[in-house]
């Protein structure tokens, strides 16, 4: 069976990986590599709030997965000397779930809600008065005997993260004091991250191996760290030094090419080019033909293909570019460019 390389960009693989990921997380803004503008803005926001001895304003962080949204939340809470409660949009099913979390916080605490676009409407609405004036409307009873009770909750700061900023309603978005966008990292930043992680894990990787791993990491720290660990496993089992050749061998075995494309990424390009003459083709169709979930394609695979300029998104669907075709050894019959209107 081919390896499930999807894992490398999607979910955590093993318990060992989870522990290693924690060990590799930067603990302060100084240690955090990249996202310079976000770091500078955050440093000002935190220093100003500390000088005024006020809680931080609510923070929204968006961008593709694996870029460090949770890590930033952990750093913010740590630098402000407060606790961070972590949950996710999908876990907060009922208003009561949110109510019990909010009432359990202390003044100055942080609440991190990952994948906040998955919050259901009633929970989102319950958050509004909580975010605005730290009040919670609780409904007691049912039907026409139901009563609403308003209670005061601790002055907390919400840090919300999403890969889908467009899925948030305007009223919700406007309740955040700041909205930071994380971008894919630069190649040199990813190299620094792989180098830092190799040193922290005591992996004797040669500089060329670091470069090779970084080049396949899709400009994403989480993937960079995971690839480093898989290549380290390979070097250990082969009992050979971790150099460029060995890194390439390990990545080939994982079915990851030199630009970091996995089988699913290449399949997306193949379908658009071979079955739809370069597009346009809708996301639903691509998802059905690959047998992959639409959200996974939109959140995990497409952002990187867009970043490489291998596909474009148009109002009529996805189109492949000539660079994308070239990468998988095809040639587009007609260059697919964006419509001019
Ligand atoms: N590990 C994961 N992300 C990182 C980052 N942005 N800086 C340093 N180490 C990291």
From TrEMBL:
EC number(s) on file: 3.6.4.-
RNA-binding listed as a keyword: no
Region Head domain (RuvB-H), residue ranges: 258-341
One GO molecular-function entry: ATP binding
GO terms under biological process: DNA recombination; DNA repair
UniProt keyword list: ATP-binding, Cytoplasm, DNA damage, DNA recombination, DNA repair, DNA-binding, Helicase, Hydrolase, Nucleotide-binding
Compartments, as annotated in UniProt: Cytoplasm
Swiss-Prot/TrEMBL catalytic activity: ATP + H2O = ADP + phosphate + H(+)
Residues annotated as binding DNA: 313, 318
Binding annotation for Mg(2+): 70
Binding site for ATP: 24-25, 66, 69-71, 175, 185, 222
Comment on protein domains: Has 3 domains, the large (RuvB-L) and small ATPase (RuvB-S) domains and the C-terminal head (RuvB-H) domain. The head domain binds DNA, while the ATPase domains jointly bind ATP, ADP or are empty depending on the state of the subunit in the translocation cycle. During a single DNA translocation step the structure of each domain remains the same, but their relative positions change.
Family: Belongs to the RuvB family.
Subunit and interaction comment: Homohexamer. Forms an RuvA(8)-RuvB(12)-Holliday junction (HJ) complex. HJ DNA is sandwiched between 2 RuvA tetramers; dsDNA enters through RuvA and exits via RuvB. An RuvB hexamer assembles on each DNA strand where it exits the tetramer. Each RuvB hexamer is contacted by two RuvA subunits (via domain III) on 2 adjacent RuvB subunits; this complex drives branch migration. In the full resolvosome a probable DNA-RuvA(4)-RuvB(12)-RuvC(2) complex forms which resolves the HJ.
Protein name, entry field: Holliday junction branch migration complex subunit RuvB
């Amino acid at each position: 069976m081919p390896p499930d390389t999807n894992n490398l960009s999607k979910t955590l693989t093993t318990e060992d990986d989870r522990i290693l990921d924690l060990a590799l997380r930067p603990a302060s803004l100084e240690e955090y590599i990249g996202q310079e503008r976000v770091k500078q803005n955050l440093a000002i926001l935190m220093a100003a709030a500390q000088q005024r001895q006020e809680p931080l304003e609510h923070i929204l962080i968006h961008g593709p997965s694996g870029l460090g949204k949770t890590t930033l939340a952990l750093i913010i809470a740590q630098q402000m000397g407060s606790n961070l409660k972590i949950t996710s949009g999908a876990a907060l099913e009922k208003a009561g779930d949110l109510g019990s979390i909010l009432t359990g916080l202390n003044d100055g605490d942080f609440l991190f809600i990952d994948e906040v676009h998955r919050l259901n409407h009633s929970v989102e609405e319950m958050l509004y008065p909580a975010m605005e004036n730290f009040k919670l409307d609780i409904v007691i009873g049912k039907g026409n005997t139901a009563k609403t009770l308003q209670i005061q909750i601790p002055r907390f700061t919400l840090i919300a993260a999403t890969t889908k900023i467009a899925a948030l309603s305007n009223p919700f978005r406007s309740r955040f004091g700041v909205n930071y966008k994380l971008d894919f990292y630069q190649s040199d930043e990813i190299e620094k991250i792989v180098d830092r992680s190799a040193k922290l894990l005591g992996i004797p990787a040669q500089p060329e191996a670091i470069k090779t791993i970084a080049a396949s990491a899709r400009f994403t720290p989480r993937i960079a760290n995971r690839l480093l660990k898989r290549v380290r496993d390979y070097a250990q089992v082969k009992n050979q030094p971790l150099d460029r050749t060995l890194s390439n061998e390990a990545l080939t075995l994982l079915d990851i090419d030199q630009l970091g494309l996995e089988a699913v990424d290449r399949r997306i390009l193949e379908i658009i080019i071979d079955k739809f003459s370069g597009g346009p083709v809708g996301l639903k169709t691509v998802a059905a033909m690959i047998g992959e979930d639409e959200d996974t394609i939109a959140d995990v695979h497409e952002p990187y293909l867009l970043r490489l300029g291998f596909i474009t998104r148009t109002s009529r669907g996805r189109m492949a570019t000539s660079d994308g075709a070239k990468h998988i050894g095809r040639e587009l019959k007609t260059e697919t460019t964006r419509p001019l209107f």
